């Protein structure tokens, strides 16, 4: 087990470093102190060939020039807040409008666009990087001074755990996630249409034209949103279902999980043999199949295109602050927040 630190680039307010965590089996996770951004995850296929399974860039400029949130931690609130405002304890707060009059992924300068403080730890059977950041009262419009820790831990069971810990000196909102785009083919050799996804979920959230939830829970039964027995991403991308078409040909939908810490999310790529099992204590997962992915900056030598990656964003349900029937993301004053999502990499 080891951690390697090296310079990745420079910003006006500091130097950005990359931290590479590697276990005794050769599995490697590289992340930046800029946005807690995961740039690479190197895992073997069924033949033992090690390749990268996430989307990212070779240089800092790629992350600065593009807004796809590759591998970053997003917040204070992941997803959209309708109208970029909310009311908390009788006071209305206005947030930065950074997507069609709404607030997306923490605003213009969310957690993905700042340099975090870093501590590293090496043990016999695991290595970890702990990122820390203080989001000041009023930042992007949110109340309260919020201290957040994000810890990435890689162990010898080929598991990557992401732990979030937060506390605020005033009531605020908090709903964070990691926005990695996965492609288990290895080094982006193929798109993700033949990836098979299994979810322990009986319901998903219907979306409006602006991709905000309508507030209605929809049953997956008999639809392209039924992943309970496994389903290829292709079936949704090619579906005529109104919700798949609304999302741009695929998925950009929140699913309500009916199990936690029990192999509730499984992604497989039959051709490479790679499998990733995701376990979380969050209530939901947003499945996004990169339906809107475009641009001219190459992603490790591959031009951006639709369906090149899949995001599995474990989190609270989007726009919950406007829907009383969704679990709340309100973080009360001085009340600790903690959440853990674990990714286990293997082959089948």
From TrEMBL:
GO cellular component annotations of the record: cytoplasm
GO MF annotations in UniProt: aldose 1-epimerase activity; carbohydrate binding
NCBIfam families reported in the protein's UniProt record: PRK11055.1
Pathway listed: Carbohydrate metabolism; hexose metabolism
Source taxonomy: Bacteria, Bacillati, Bacillota, Bacilli, Bacillales
Protein name: Aldose 1-epimerase
Active-site feature positions: 179, 313
Catalytic activity, EC: 5.1.3.3
């Amino acid at each position: 087990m080891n951690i390697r630190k090296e310079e990745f680039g420079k910003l006006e307010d500091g130097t950005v470093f990359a931290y590479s965590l590697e276990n005794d089996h050769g599995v490697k996770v590289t992340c930046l102190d800029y946005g807690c951004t995961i740039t690479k995850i190197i895992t073997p296929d069924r033949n033992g060939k090690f390749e990268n399974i996430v989307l990212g860039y070779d240089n800092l400029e790629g992350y600065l020039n593009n807004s796809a949130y590759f591998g970053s931690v997003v917040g204070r609130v992941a997803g959209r807040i309708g109208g970029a405002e909310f009311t908390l304890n009788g006071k209305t707060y206005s947030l930065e409008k950074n997507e069609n009059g709404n607030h997306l992924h923490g605003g213009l300068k969310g957690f993905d666009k700042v340099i975090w403080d870093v501590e590293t730890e090496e043990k016999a059977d695991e290595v970890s990087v702990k990122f820390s950041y203080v989001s000041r009262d009023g930042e992007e419009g949110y109340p309260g001074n919020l201290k957040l820790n994000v810890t990435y831990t890689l162990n010898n069971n080929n598991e990557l755990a992401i732990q979030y810990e937060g506390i605020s000196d005033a009531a605020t909102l908090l709903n964070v996630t990691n926005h990695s785009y996965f492609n288990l083919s290895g080094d982006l050799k193929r798109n993700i249409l033949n990836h098979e996804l299994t979810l322990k979920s009986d319901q998903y959230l219907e979306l409006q034209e602006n991709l905000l939830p309508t507030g209605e829970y929809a049953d997956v039964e008999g639809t392209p949103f039924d992943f309970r027995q496994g389903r290829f991403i292709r079936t949704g991308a090619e579906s005529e279902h109104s919700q798949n078409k609304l999302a741009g040909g695929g998925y950009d939908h929140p699913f309500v999980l009916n199990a936690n810490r029990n192999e509730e999310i499984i992604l497989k790529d039959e051709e490479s043999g790679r499998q990733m099992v995701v376990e979380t204590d969050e209530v939901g997962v947003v499945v996004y199949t990169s339906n809107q992915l475009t641009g001219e900056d190459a992603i490790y030598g591959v031009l951006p295109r639709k369906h090149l990656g899949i995001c599995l964003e474990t989190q609270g349900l989007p726009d919950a602050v406007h829907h009383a029937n969704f679990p709340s993301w309100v973080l009360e004053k001085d009340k600790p927040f903690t959440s853990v999502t674990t990714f286990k990499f293997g082959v089948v």
